[in-house]
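TL;DR need structure tokens for one chain.
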Amino acid sequence: MPRALCWMTLTLLALGAAGCASSADYGESPSPGDGSGGAPNEPGGAPVCNTAADCPAGYTCTRSACVPPEDEKDASDAPPPLASKSFVYVLSPSANSLTRIDPRTLTLEAIPVGASPVDVAVVPGEDAAVTLSSLEASLSVVDSATLPSHVLRVPLGRRYGRVSVSPDGAYALAWPDPSSPPGSGAEGVVSLVDLRAARRGEPAERTVLERSAGFRVTDVLFRQEEGVATHAYVFAKSTVTVLDLSAPRQQPLPVRISLPAAMAADINSREVVATPDGQRVLLRATSAAMLASFDGAAFRTVTLPEVATDVDLLPDGSGAVAALRTAGQLAFIELPGDLVDPSGIQLIDVPETSVGQVVLPPDGGGHFALVYTTVLNDESLTRVELPSGTVTRYPLEKRVDRVALSADGRAAVIIHKPEPASTATDPYERAVDADRGYSVLDLPSGYLQLRRTGKLEPAQLAFSSGGGFVGVTLRSDTERRYAVDAVDLSTLVSHSVSLASPPAYAGGFAGATEETRHRVFVSQLHPAGRISFVNLDDSQIRTVTGFTLNSRIE
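>> reply
TL;DR here they are.
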């Protein structure tokens, strides 16, 4: 049953956070099981500990063992293809171009952009995109409302690695890539580009605004109110810089707010999450048992009984969920009320399962959390209703690598980890453990189906925009076998469609037409560029190879 978190403390940034007892004071987690879908086993050979203070940064002390952080997958550092209102855009750095593909007709256009483009973002709600050239230190605005596409080049003067576009399409923000050293004096400097002014043809000195943004920028978010982007938040190692988009030129020195010290201690594993409109932002530290809420003007910190291993926000901003692995609990925080009075925060027990990561449904998909772990030997997935705390546990046949939810919150796809060193005595069970695979779960009925894929690794997922289907890419470089599974979510039956080369990314289409409502795209690794369009309802596939010259449809 949920318990009121009456001992939590809420502080403004200017105040010191009140101390908490160690996680050992809050009871034991469920006892270890046999690793066959019951309660989890601790990893063998892990250092002995009494509290998380005895473990490396980011680790938790779970059943007297130091357990590493949960593994949240990020498929690649390379920019994936992006779907606009009507097209798919694919960045081609070696060809200095952006390829526009019509998913209905498979016609394409190679659009010249700045040399060696490193990032791309679509303009929301439009058939337009923005690319960033690090080598040329420029930004290209590509407008495909009329064809051929129109390209506008905007010089930046600094070599950036990332670009973000505001939800209303009014601004682009170029910023340093946090994974590599900044170039051309870009450390701590961002460039705000007024896209509307640029598209009107105004000169760079009236469209580009450079502002200092602190040391080691890590995240950029936009705040939106009534459909208009009002602020940009630039998170750096120890500060957040707030750019007022209503009058950015009147802020030569934008508002800069210091982060709570714990949030600056380990930025490589720090987590920053926000609602789609950016009106609620939460930070999770891996070096201290706390969360920090940012409202655009100040931080409020909430102390937890232990370091949270994951945190996520409900899309409507009405609540947040933090995973407390050692205690085997979720902390459910109703927003904004529990930030004002933290005595209302609930601790929800999640018995007979490991609490490591949480997945929340998209907007409109209900109020619940799916709970699992990627590092403990636990073959299960658990659903927790919010705020009631009702728990439904789904035993699985294999360990979990990651979980994805459909847009309506009715189906979950669970990617599994292979266990080649399985000690199962039953040969069949041992073979299942050793295989790669994924499971599909129909949440309303609890109906679950495992799909064994052998040596083929399930990598990318793409739900169809029309609902009812999901595509799962499969890849084995050793066997040179590549495919995409088309899964019917009404029957949980899959059909495999072969691919000619290794899949890299998969995605669906926003605002899809009748032709594309069950169609997904799968980009592949190919020297000339290759992308396939797969109809998940009838397994038909068409492929475009060669994004620059002599492209052909197969």
